[in-house]
Amino acid sequence: VALSLRTIRTKRHKLTVDMQSGAGELYDLQSDPNELTNLFDDPLSCPIREELMRGINSRPDDMMPNQIQVGMA
């Protein structure tokens, strides 16, 4: 299974998204520095998730050309 992960981090938030499946993780690093509570699907976190996704989408050239195979071949 090949993953297409992208991550963006601000002082307060960290978002990692699999660009193929749309699955992701969103953390509030201020209130949850150990990244224990995934806010990705939290409706109240939707505005910050959308803002961070705009940041990821605004930099398509940051994509690494080689994908790494994850899991069993």
Description of the molecule:
The chain is an alpha+beta fold. Helices cover 16% and strands 22% of the residues. The chain has one helix at residues 46-57, and strands spanning 5-9, 13-18, 24-28. Strands 1-2-3 form a three-stranded antiparallel β-sheet, with helices on one face. β1 and β2 (13-18) form a beta hairpin.
Element layout with pairings:
Layout: E1 5-9, E2 13-18, E3 24-28, H1 46-57
Antiparallel strand pairs: 1-2, 2-3
What is the straight-line distance between the termini? 8 Å
**How is the main sheet built?**
3 strands, antiparallel
General shape: globular
Which bin fits the share of residues in helices?
A: 10-25%
Radius of gyration: 13 Å
Beta percentage is 15-25%
Strand order in space, largest sheet: 1-2-3
List keywords for this structure.
73 residues; alpha+beta; three-stranded antiparallel beta sheet; 1 helix; 3 strands; globular
In short:
With 73 residues, the protein is of the alpha+beta class.
